[in-house]
């Protein structure tokens, strides 16, 4: 396990695509804030301007706007990181060992968690720079609430990376995996299922889908909202981890 994790971490730290994605994300995040300044509109009935939002509200506002750009960056990195190892054939060095297969999945999960954490750190830095430059606003809001928001969104985005990892593992095809990642990031499936649900059943089960939960603006002071958010995130992580491990164990050697 330790050796596989070291190997993946070595590849991670020397992965030029990872640094490029973080740099692009930072640049486009700042550019997006600049464009918000140019076309600033009230975002609530109370007339709250984007420039007056705390970082807590600003994060919720940007994440809820389709498409979720963070999900696209996560999808691209996840697929590239997994497919680069698969295409090199390095997996054949350990795939004949059952425990090594399991450890390889957990190693990838740890690397994806690290990338998602770095993406959130980059977002906070970019937001701080952009909001200071264009809105003269750096209010972070209540520290406790901010930590809860970041923790919940980190788990949801990590779960999304595991979903994309499962797709990449099963398809072993770069184009198919990227297409699926973009469709999921756009939440096409969630919106279609939600529309069908409202049209024919009137239930609200689709609100428990991973992407729908991720993009929904949450009341962080509401215990039911917190249970919903963390419950969906943890359940998705556990289920997707199990599926990834089970598939890896049964994967063909070819």
Automatic annotation (TrEMBL):
Keyword Transmembrane: yes
Record has Transmembrane helix as a keyword: yes
Spans traversing the lipid bilayer: 66-84, 105-126, 146-167, 174-196, 226-245
Keywords assigned by UniProt, alphabetized: Membrane, Transmembrane, Transmembrane helix
Origin superkingdom: Bacteria
Protein known as: ABC-2 type transport system permease protein
Organism of derivation: Paenibacillus silagei
């Amino acid at each position: 396990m330790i050796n596989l994790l070291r190997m993946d971490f070595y590849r991670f730290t020397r992965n030029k695509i990872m640094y490029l994605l973080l740099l692009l994300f930072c640049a486009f995040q700042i550019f997006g804030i600049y464009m918000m300044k140019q076309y600033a509109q009230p975002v609530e009935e109370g007339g709250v301007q984007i420039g007056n939002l705390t970082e807590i509200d600003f994060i919720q506002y940007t994440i809820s706007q389709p498409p979720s750009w963070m999900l696209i960056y996560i999808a691209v990195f996840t697929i590239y990181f997994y497919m680069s190892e698969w295409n090199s054939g390095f997996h054949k060095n350990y795939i004949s060992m059952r425990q090594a297969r399991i450890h390889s999945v957990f190693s990838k999960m740890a690397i994806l968690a690290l990338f998602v954490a770095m993406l959130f750190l980059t977002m906070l830095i970019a937001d701080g720079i952009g909001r200071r430059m264009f809105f003269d606003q750096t209010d972070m809001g209540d520290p406790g609430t901010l930590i809860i928001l970041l923790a919940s969104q980190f788990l949801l985005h990590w779960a999304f990376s595991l979903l994309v990892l499962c797709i990449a593992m099963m398809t072993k095809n770069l184009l198919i995996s990227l297409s699926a990642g973009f469709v999921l990031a756009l939440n096409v499936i969630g919106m279609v299922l939600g529309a069908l649900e409202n049209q024919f059943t009137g239930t609200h089960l689709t609100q428990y889908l991973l992407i729908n939960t991720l993009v929904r603006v949450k009341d962080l002071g509401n215990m039911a909202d917190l249970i919903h958010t963390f419950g969906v995130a943890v359940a998705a992580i556990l289920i997707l981890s199990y599926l990834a491990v089970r598939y890896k164990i049964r994967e063909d050697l070819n």
